[in-house]
Protein 1
Amino acid sequence: MPHIVNHPLIQHKLTLIRNKNTGTKEFRENVNEIAGLMAYEITRNIELREIRTETPLMSCMTWELARDIVLVPVLRAGLGMVDGITSLIPTAKIGHVGMVRDHNSLEPINYYAKFPYRIKNSVVLVLDPMLATGGSASATLDRLKKEGAFELKLVCIVGAPEGVERISKDHPDVEVFLAALDDGLNEKGYILPGLGDAGDRLFGTNDFPF
Ligand code: PRP
Ligand code: URA
């Protein structure tokens, strides 16, 4: 089962981005804010190591993150989640995977991939606002595993049951985090009720086609 990160602030902002009258600026701001709030919850249990620190008064033992954190936004729409997370984790490295769904087959086409050098030993957060059929996320996780990454978390804002099932079948080792689990998909592969085309709404590339 996916983890539903349903903090009241996230739910309030989710309502704003679902609203068809929310424009590009407000949509982009709220996607980033939701991503930051989700990352705060998701990183609650990540590994720490103890280090010695000199305060102005004395030496004491303190904690720091034990592992690098790598964010991998799935282009394009995943880019909309990056700034909200790097404002909390400014040392995070960033990889990129380009995936676009063929509009007829709904199959993902991988057109770009570039990763930080130390991705193998990092905690990797894969970012995409939408988990619809799960094809794009599954192919992204395949690509990352080929690169040697093994501690992978999939962070999406809205998911469909079909996408959740696909990830649990293809990648049972990957934890899935959502702000909401929606009802299903329409015949064109859009999530219902969803929020429309996340990439288009983030980047203002299309009038809403419904
Ligand atoms: C959207 C979305 C996901 C994918 C989800 O991207 O951002 O990557 O669809 O659908 P799936 O779960 O059925 O694969 P899209 O292909 O529209 O590309 P874009 O981000 O460039 O708009
Ligand atoms: N991609 C989107 O951007 N929205 C959906 O509803 C499904 C896939």
Protein 2
Amino acid sequence: MTPESRPRVLTGDTPTGRLHLGHYVGSIERRLELQEEYDCYFLIANMHAFTTRAERSEEIRRDTLEIVKDWLSTGIDPERSTVTLQTEVPAIAELSWFFAMLIPFNRVMRNPTLKTEIDAKGLGDSYPFGFPMYAVGQCADILAFRPEFVPVGEDQVAHIEMCREVARRFDVLYCSVNPKADDADFEKLGGVFPIPKALVGRVARLPGIDGIQKMSKSLGNAVFLSDSAAEVRKKLNKIFTGRQSPTEPGDIHNALMQFVDAFVRDPNRVAELKDRYARGDNLGDGHIKQELGEHINALLDPMRERRAKYEGKAGDDLVIDIIKAGTRRANEQAERTLWMAKEAMGLGFFRRGLRLE
Ligand code: TRP
């Protein structure tokens, strides 16, 4: 199959800092699989970073390069997949306006992911208008590429659901698709937009090393993909279980055992560890942490190797070249979509070209 005839996948990350193991098992791993067969677009949602950090633009610029370095280190391959920068894909901003007309204000404000974020970040009622707007923008991020799948962490499913509603509404309103049609048939029936499906990763929720909360950079409980082997071991040693001795029967659902589930990839070994843990069969937490450290470092070692290529100023330049080539390609797709949408809306006045200098 030529790259263009492969079905498309779109996903993105807001550049907020380094990626951690929770991101890896929750979403990145899935992207690596999809990259083998699909035409994948990976969007750096730098506009979204401004919704809560508009005054920290320097930091956002740095995080933008960092996140791409994280992606490349995991094996996202710019020869096969398209890495693109949201702020240089103008069709996304334009589609956001049109989509904002298709979704009731109250529906946006009821989006549970936005609500959770407002609470978690303590935004109160002082967040900017652009903050809820990002959820509409995310519909455009996705639909600009008319993808079949959107691989995301569990926390993003509410956004994808909103995106599906917008796509249906557009197709019904401007392409006369029967609102009762099956989601799978919308494009076939003349809709501009397919109804994309969320794909949630293998591990929906990885706990942090505090053993309680979900792994998250802002909670200070994360193991980063860019941590050294020694840092990884040190952090794993902090996972608290409250267990006193290797002969005390342990809870096979505690944070440590969730790590075992996520990172020991041999099911027989996992079963054996759980069995002995549950019985208190002379299996200390320290032993498990040691074994886990080996697995996690074996996973991260190739990432460390790939990342080395992108260090320093020369590395930044390489990354910027990758983003530029990807953004060119992304604009071809997004401009095509925008034109299709405009034609459907009776806005097909002038076709335009777009060129990155
Ligand atoms: N909101 C997502 C997050 O915080 C990032 C994102 C932006 C995204 N645009 C997207 C994810 C489009 C999937 C599809 O992780």
